[in-house]
Amino acid sequence: MQKNDQKEEISKIVSFYLEKIRKLCEKNGTKLLLVSTPSPINCNYARHNSIEAYAREKGLDFLDLNLKTEEIGINWKTDSLDNGDHLNYSGADKVTRYLGNYLTQNYTFPDHRGEKTYRTWDKEYKIYEQKAVREMKVIKKAG
To answer: Does the pLDDT at position 48 exceed 90?
Structure first.
């Protein structure tokens, strides 16, 4: 992305739902974080500037991961399904780890692992881990 001062208008439908989400979060005392995930084909600085201005106006946090691809370690040849439009498992894993660290450093969340009410989450996480190992083997074999 080439840094500039241009802005791209946020569409009416996106604005409508963004406001609904923002108000719902506000009503429930939940802090809203706007996140833009890496996608050089779909992202540009004009969009970044518009979302950043909206976030600033509404007092929201905004994390644009398109500006952090180097820090995240994204390699568009190995971490994308289609040269930068969508992340594959490897790219999504890197983004998820980065975002998880960001959330842990900047917000407070209760840890429900091992709690009876959240057993299904623990079970689903184990299934996810097994699938992740298989997926990474496929990616390494193809690469």
So the answer is: yes
